[in-house]
Write a structure and sequence with these properties.
The protein has 705 residues and is α/β, with parallel strands linked by helices. Helices cover 48% and strands 12% of the residues.
């Protein structure tokens, strides 16, 4: 029966059981998804509204005008304070003392004493004036009332009516009542409008002084590229550099910083102004913020140059007209004047224009030259332009090695006595021997009788980094490349740098990407004229121009790669550099290859004819081992010092610079090495003869070479 009984009451299922029993996946409650979607749409709308241009414009508007009011209040309060106190005089005294102008400081101190004395007298007069004022009020009131009564008497007599006696006094009282009534009516609106008028006045002061930050200005006002440079723009740009002492000093100056500026002068395609910095601000700090200063002046970084003139604590700003430096300069006088000639000793090469727009000319007389820069920036064209001018002096002899070898110097075939073109090790060897030939000519000239006159000999090595990085080694085991004393090219360049200019043997080198490996320090410091095109880093700029030029404001690393092709920074006494500067920026004339060939033809027509050698005459092939046997003669053994002397006598050109190490390299591992006899190093004849007798035909030094 129990199974058939239907219970009258069943235990109620809990909520969980109901859901479980009804469905394993509960349906969402009606309307639960809509709040989420509404919240997302609201958040998205708020984000769009906050980040929209209209919101940013409105925020800038509020911030700008608010800062006008705040700035106007600050300026008005400062002006009031300055007018009522001695703070202005004290500030000017401090500024004069900081600038070392003690005469001006004394003058301002006298003015301060006069101001304080006058203020004291006015205060004392004010204290003494109270009784006099009361007496004056009483007398004035009595006279006024008496006058009105006298007028009333006259009116009463005239009208024969006693009531006119007090008519003037009544009229005055009525006028006072009307004034009070009008004042009562006007007072309420005046109290309401007055503060707004005061705010408007403060806003006007702030707006005239541009107290709002740059970021709050509207787009059309902030985009003021090309605006004329005025003193207020320069001072504002300096104030906003982020240098706290400079900003505070400008704020404390009574003339808003105008005293820092010299006259703004037109300088070529821009303007130039000297800025005397206040105490506590170094020129290096301003130089380090060149980009920010340019942006504050509404210019690009390459349109602002900062140099250090002679005056202490002064920077010279050159600010280009917007876009002016992107315009090409005119053609070279070498192109426009077909009658032009050159004079190596007294003339200057017309090379380009400086930033002021003046012609930039460079003297090459007895000055070794180094030009460097990144690849494809116009280095070869700038160097070739100087050589083309020199070619118009028919007394100049050229020896040229183009280690790029793409025809940039091909027009000098028939002008140069030596023209090597190519990038291989063989070309580097030929270039090295060309440099060594210049050394030999230099030494011949040095040893000539006093008073001998020599024609200029100019050696040019383009892409000289190829020579310094060359791994080739000669038969004497000396490398051609490298930066050590064993490097043949390095030592030839050093010798020319040391003594060449005295006898008009000059070396000009062009190289890329200067480093200590491809442009050794001793070589770059041996150049009298150092030139740099655009470079990648400040450290490269220091290698190219030297620390003095870079510390003085030279910045080839800030030139724009590709856009400033042909623009060079020059450190040399052969070019006119403004006083106090260590370098000058020049925009060189570009002469293309075809035009350069035409100029070269004019130079060839001035000469009797030059035969150009494309290789260097090595002279007879040397066999050092055979030469050693020759100088040993019939002696069984000879001291090494005597062997060196005999080799020099045999062939001074080949062996004149040999040392014991050179002798050892030739004999090393041959079986004929020097050995000691009676405590002294000697070379045995039988050993050398045995090595030569057993040497295969292709084992000679000449064959190996």
């Amino acid at each position: 029966m129990t199974d058939n009984v239907v219970p009258l009451f069943k235990a109620p299922l809990n909520h969980t059981d109901t859901l479980t029993a009804a469905s394993p996946t509960p349906a969402p409650a009606a309307g639960t998804g809509r709040p989420v979607r509404v919240w997302k749409r609201t958040a998205s709308g708020l984000r769009t509204a906050v980040t929209s241009e209209q919101t940013r414009t409105a925020a800038r508007l509020v911030a700008r005008h608010g800062m006008y009011v705040i700035g106007g209040t600050r300026i008005t309060a400062k002006r009031t304070w300055d007018g009522r106190t001695a703070s202005r005089y004290e500030r000017m005294i401090r500024a004069a003392e900081a600038g070392g102008n003690f005469e001006e400081a004394k003058e301002w101190e006298d003015r301060l004493q006069r101001f304080r004395s006058g203020r004291h007298n006015r205060r004392m007069d004010l204290l003494r004036s109270a009784p006099d004022l009361a007496k004056s009020v009483a007398v004035g009131t009595g006279l006024t009332v008496g006058g009105l009564l006298l007028l009333g008497i006259v009116l009463a007599i005239a009208n024969k009516d006693i009531s006119w006696l007090f008519a003037p006094i009544g009229t005055v009282i009525e006028a006072i009542r009307m004034i009070v009534v009008v004042a009562t009516v006007v007072w309420g609106p005046a109290l309401t409008v007055g503060p707004w008028l005061a705010l408007l006045a403060l806003w006007g002061v702030g707006r005239r002084q541009q107290t709002a930050p740059q970021w709050t200005l509207p787009a059309q006002q902030r985009d003021d590229v090309g605006a004329p440079i005025t003193p207020s723009i320069v001072v504002t740009a300096l104030r906003d550099l982020g240098i706290a002492p400079l900003r505070n000093a400008i704020k404390d100056m009574g003339d808003a910083g105008a005293a820092m500026l010299g006259p703004i002068r037109i300088a070529g395609c821009g303007v130039e102004v000297d800025v005397t910095l206040p105490s506590g601000v170094s020129t290096a700090e301003v130089q380090g913020r060149r980009r920010k200063l340019a942006e504050n002046l509404a210019r690009h970084e390459h349109e602002v140059f900062i140099t250090i003139p002679v005056a202490a604590r002064t920077v010279r700003l050159w600010i280009a007209d917007s876009g002016a430096l992107d315009q090409p300069i005119g053609p070279s006088p070498l192109v426009t004047d077909e009658t032009m000639t050159a004079n190596y000793k007294t003339g200057k090469a017309p090379w380009g224009q400086d930033l002021r727009g003046d012609a930039a000319t460079l003297s090459l007389y007895q000055r070794h030259l180094l030009i460097t820069g990144l690849s494809n920036q116009g280095k070869t064209a700038a160097l070739r332009a100087l050589a083309l001018w020199l070619a118009l002096d028919k007394t100049v002899e050229f020896r040229i090695a183009d280690l790029k070898g793409v025809g940039d110097w091909a027009m000098f075939d028939g002008l140069a006595t030596t023209l090597i073109q190519g990038p291989t090790d063989d070309h580097v060897i030929a270039a090295t021997e060309m440099a060594e030939g210049m050394v030999a000519e230099m030494e011949r000239r040095i040893q000539a009788p006093p008073g001998t006159v020599f024609t200029p000999l100019v050696g040019i090595v383009d892409e000289a980094q190829v020579a310094f990085m060359c791994p080739a080694v000669g038969a004497d085991k000396r490398p051609y490349g490298g930066s050590k004393a064993t490097s043949r090219y390095f030592m030839a360049v050093r010798k020319i740098h040391n003594q060449g200019r005295a006898v008009d043997v000059i070396l000009q080198e062009g190289t890329q990407d200067p480093t200590d490996q491809n442009l050794p320090k001793l070589v770059r410091e041996g150049a009298h004229t150092r030139i740099s095109l655009a470079l990648g880093t400040e450290s490269q700029a220091r290698m190219a121009l030297g620390d003095k030029a870079v510390d003085g404001g030279a910045a080839p690393h800030l030139l724009r790669q590709g856009l400033d092709k042909g623009t060079v920074v020059v450190a040399s006494d052969g070019i006119a550099i403004p006083a106090g500067q260590a370098a000058i920026t020049v925009r060189t004339h570009y002469i293309d290859t075809d035009t350069a060939a035409q100029i070269a033809e004019r130079a060839k027509a001035m000469r009797a004819g030059v035969t150009t050698a494309h290789t260097v005459d090595h002279g007879p092939v040397l066999d050092p081992l055979a030469d050693i046997l020759t100088v040993l003669g019939t002696d069984s053994r000879v001291l090494t010092q005597d062997v060196l002397k005999r080799l020099t006598a045999l062939n001074e050109k080949a062996y004149g610079g040999w040392s014991f190490l050179d002798l050892k390299r030739v004999l090393e591992h041959t079986g004929a090495e020097p050995y000691k006899s009676d405590g002294r190093m000697v070379i045995g004849r039988d050993r050398v003869a045995r090595v030569l007798a057993n040497r295969p035909d292709d084992g000679s030094a000449s064959a190996a070479e």
